[in-house]
Amino acid sequence: MKKILCIDIGNTNVVLGISSCNKEDFNFKHFRITTNHFTTIDEVSLSLHTVLNYFEVDKTDISSIVISSVVPEVDIQYRYCLL
Asked: Residue 26, class by beta-carbon neighbours within 10 Å (0-12 exposed, 13-18 middle, 19+ buried)?
């Protein structure tokens, strides 16, 4: 089943969420990590893979990604990581 990866980058926390694309089977799981303004692409990649593994979601099941950010310097790291 296809999933949506939601990323909310705030000044204090980054919330990574996984949601089902199916409205009848809406299930939202989320994981909160501390925002690091000096994070690297490698650290972001590791965090994303860890969260996907934690929720037992295969990255091929992700059909869409939504990013909301108020921290542009961290936003860039997530964008490059997801390319």
From this structure: exposed
The answer to whether the beta carbons of residues 82 and 59 sit under 8 Å apart is no
How big is the CA angle at 38 (ends 37 and 39), to the nearest 5 degrees?
100
* Torsion sign, CA atoms 18, 22, 23, 26: negative
Q: Are 35 and 71 in contact (CB under 8 A)?
A: yes
pLDDT in tens, 13-51: 999 999 887 766 667 788 999 999 999 999 999 999 999
List all residues 6 or more positions away from 80 whose beta carbon is below 8 Å from its beta carbon.
41
On whether the CB atoms of residues 83 and 65 are closer than 8 A, the answer is no
Q: How far apart are CA 75 and CA 57, in angstroms?
A: 23
Phi/psi of residue 79, each to 5°? -65, -45
